[in-house]
């Protein structure tokens, strides 16, 4: 199950979008995530916290890869992992392989789409052979999901995705 920074207000209530995150909000977000982990532990499930980019999600708190890593590492529980969305990392921060390496101990899922266009790998500027190799080399053998539009036929998009992550 996937979470975004907007859901990390007091008791999990939505946070209004804003330009600046106040220090107290970090503490509330951490407490909310602990509460979510308690529920997840009872249910035997794992949540992921996903990074988003501010261009498409203006004012989203705890949006960046760095913010998500900070929160997940601070909570430090097996019920909470990172959903590392490399499309959002590329737009928000760039340097996707370095960010992936930093997140690796905490990654529960990797999501991909190329940029610009948010279509399947191979339709944009991102170097998927290098990214796929780097993920494998850093020991990432977890799920990789494509969250993308098909540039043309959906079956071609799926094939491009499969090919990009078959080493
Ligand atoms: O809304 C988005 O852009 C997402 O990536 C949701 O997971």
How does this model look, in words?
This protein is an alpha/beta fold. It has a single domain (2-164), classed as Divalent-metal-dependent TIM barrel enzymes (TIM Barrel, Alpha-Beta Barrel). It is built from six helices and five strands. The chain has helices at 23-43, 65-75, 86-92, 96-103, 128-137, 154-164; strands spanning 2-3, 47-50, 80-85, 107-112, 144-146. A five-stranded parallel β-sheet has the order 1-2-3-4-5. β2, α2 (65-75) and β3 (80-85) form a beta-alpha-beta unit. 3-hydroxypyruvic acid binds at residues 50, 52, 56, 85, 147.
What's the SSE blueprint?
Blueprint: E1 2-3, H1 23-43, E2 47-50, H2 65-75, E3 80-85, H3 86-92, H4 96-103, E4 107-112, H5 128-137, E5 144-146, H6 154-164
Parallel strand pairs: 1-2, 2-3, 3-4, 4-5
Bound molecules: 3-hydroxypyruvic acid.
Q: What profile does the largest beta sheet have?
A: 5 strands, parallel
- What is the total number of structural domains? 1
Strand elements, count: 5
Secondary structure category: alpha/beta
Q: What is the average of the pLDDT values?
A: 95
Spatial separation of the terminal alpha carbons:
28 Å
CATH architecture: Alpha-Beta Barrel
Tell me the CATH superfamily.
Divalent-metal-dependent TIM barrel enzymes
Which radius of gyration do the C-alpha atoms yield?
A: 16 Å
Compounds present? Answer: 3-hydroxypyruvic acid
Large-scale geometry: globular
Q: Mind telling me the CATH class?
A: Alpha Beta
* Helix run count: 6
Spatial strand arrangement across the major sheet? 1-2-3-4-5
